[in-house]
Amino acid sequence: MVSYEKHLFACYNMIVQRHVGEAQGTNKVTMSLVELQAVRRLQSNLSKTVLKSDDLFQKMAFFWTGLFVIGVCLEVTRYYNGKASDPDFDDPNELLQLFVNLMNFFMLFISLSIFGAKLTETAHACTMLVHRMINHAPTEENLELFSQAHLLVAQMNKPEIAMSGWNFFTFSRNFILTIGGALISYILLIIQMAPSKVKDVTVASDIKIMASLYNATASTVLNNITTRSGTW
Questions:
Q1: C-alpha angle 217/220/221, rounded to 5°?
Q2: pTM score, two decimals?
């Protein structure tokens, strides 16, 4: 559905681009009043469709994004906690399972976010084109036409046409990069905080050496005590 709405906005942008191209080098708007009113109705209907879709799916998109972030964090934490607590946990199957689970999370999130971001970008792609189309001095003959064109610009800006997550965020490329960067930072932090095997082996060997020294010292002391007791 989001892809279909993006296609409709792309067709709308093509109509505006054609009229902007025809107006290049002239000092008048090539679109007639009837055509401009039709474009306004088309833009209004498309905007209502997108906003209605956003009302239907924004809660689902918000909770899915939250589950994606929590799922990635829990999956990475589970793997490194298991790796630190169980020596047999670090095998290729566990690493493969972690990779597959993360890829599933990321693919579903990226597909949802990219469709939403592309729809948002396409809906606002021709705003500057409309400004260029009406960037001429109005005359008495086309005063009503310019009024309709300025109304078109106003309705393109408000309300904002975008796919959101319960109005907490808007799907865009910046949003995707922000979420991705935050998760990568979390993963790197978990990797740095996870105890390494070399460190564990060193600590274990130090404990064994200290235990051996303690046992040897205790044995020597007991032998000395026994010897002195026999002498007495």
A1: 85
A2: 0.69
